[in-house]
Amino acid sequence: MSPPETASSNPTLETAILALATAWGGPPAAGRWRVSPEDFQVMEIPLLEPAGAGEHIWLWIRKREENTDQVARQLARCAGVRARDVSYAGLKDRNAVTGQWFSVHLPGRHEPDWGAIETNRVTVLRHARHNRKLRRGALRGNAFRIVVRDVSGDSDALQQRLETVASRGLPNYFGEQRFGRAGSNLRMAEHLFEHRGPRLSRHQRGLVLSAARAFLFNQVLAHRVRDGSWNRVIPGDALQLDGSHSFFIAAAADAELQARADALDLHPTGPLWGRGDSPVGAACRQLEEQVLACCGSWQQGLTAAGLRQERRALRLVVKDLQWSWPTPDSLVLEFSLPAGCYATSVLRELVARAADRH
After folding, report:
1. Are 54 and 133 in contact (CB under 8 A)?
2. Is 93 designated active site?
3. Looking at the domain 32-153+322-351, which fold is it?
4. Among residues 129, 166, 145, which one has the least CA distance to residue 37?
5. Which of 132, 146, 159, 161 is spaced 20 to 30 Å from 306 by Cα?
6. Active-site entry in 85, 93, 154, 237
7. What is the pLDDT of residues 279-294, one digit of tens each?
8. pLDDT digit string (tens) for 28-81?
9. pLDDT higher than threshold 90 for residue 14
10. For the chain, where do the domains classified as CATH 3.30.2340.10 start and end?
11. How far apart are the C-alpha atoms of 105 and 128, rounded to whole Å?
12. Contact at 8 Å (CB) between 103 and 86?
């Protein structure tokens, strides 16, 4: 199976990644973002604060145009520890200004001079001890401040779209950055499943497996956006409680469940493929089997890799969405998203990306 075949009529892998259905019609405006790193700011919302004592050092770091993994390696060198002794809750965009926590395991050892890693791109703002390492995914979410420049289009329609997104949400697609440049992570996944290509490091293997799962999820979600069921309950749906990973199966699409979905209390979900039988049934199971019928080798590869089958909400609720116009053609967006969700999925419903000018 070649990935583009999972998206009908898309001739290339990159097109299959980008050409996903929008929920509320095409974006009513165009503009540029990431003109400078300061135009795309991301700050982690942590689950907890360090306790002040323990064998792990937690560091709150502000970085600009720096890769998360590269900063982790700088911390390991500074502390004289192995790379695996440094952890973080999630990867952050390189082409941005970001704030995030890292942890370094230093049992019974004095802290080094963390200022040694500081540059005009990396600043250590806080550090404190804690009794546990920082684990992947251990954050409430991320807060964003994004500037869109050179905005053109129908301003009234954009205002209406912003209000719709704020009140009704949007499709919870994995962002294009999950798939690597021009889909490189998916090409490596294809090689992995076909037992060809170079041997991958543990980190690379994790990235490509996650990309493959994300691609399959996006195809199911895009189908449900096209048929109008991405925010509607269908028989056999696995419905996730808002703000939780818990779900239950809808025996039927009744009015009470749909009312809860309309109130953003419940969300239909899609598959994150792995071992185990799919929990969905009836019409939902039939739909997912139909959409992923050409992806059998990828499903088998993900199962063989030992990943556990999970569910992800099809709908993304954008928290605390605010917008302002500092100038007539520049739009500032501020909002927060749950962990694992993408600001680019918000932008694609609002503003088409115009070609950057340098």
Report:
1. no
2. yes
3. Pseudouridine synthase (3.30.2350)
4. 145
5. 132
6. 93
7. 999 999 999 999 999 9
8. 999 999 999 999 999 999 999 999 999 999 999 999 999 999 999 999 999 999
9. no
10. 3-28+168-316
11. 12
12. yes
The CA distance from 347 to 337, in Å, is 13
Task: For residues 31 and 70, give the distance between their C-alpha atoms in angstroms, rounded to a whole number.
Answer: 31
Which tokens is 79 given?
């502390």
**Chain region(s) in the chain for CATH 3.30.2350.20:** 32-153+322-351
Distance CA 341, CA 273 (A): 18
Cα(347)–Cα(320) distance, rounded to whole angstroms?
15
Give per-residue pLDDT as tens, 318-348: 999 999 999 999 999 999 999 999 999 999 9
CA within 13 Å, CB half, 144: 31
Helix then strand count (H, E) for the chain reads 9, 16
Cα gap 59→116, rounded to integer Å: 14
- What CATH superfamily is the domain 3-28+168-316? TruD, insertion domain (3.30.2340.10)
Pairing outcome for strands 86-88 and 97-105? antiparallel
- What gap in Å lies between CA 96 and CA 39, rounded to an integer? 7
Task: Give burial (CB, 10 Å; 0-12/13-18/19+) of 25.
Answer: exposed
- In three-state secondary structure terms, 312 is strand
Look up residue 310 and give its two tokens. 């999970």
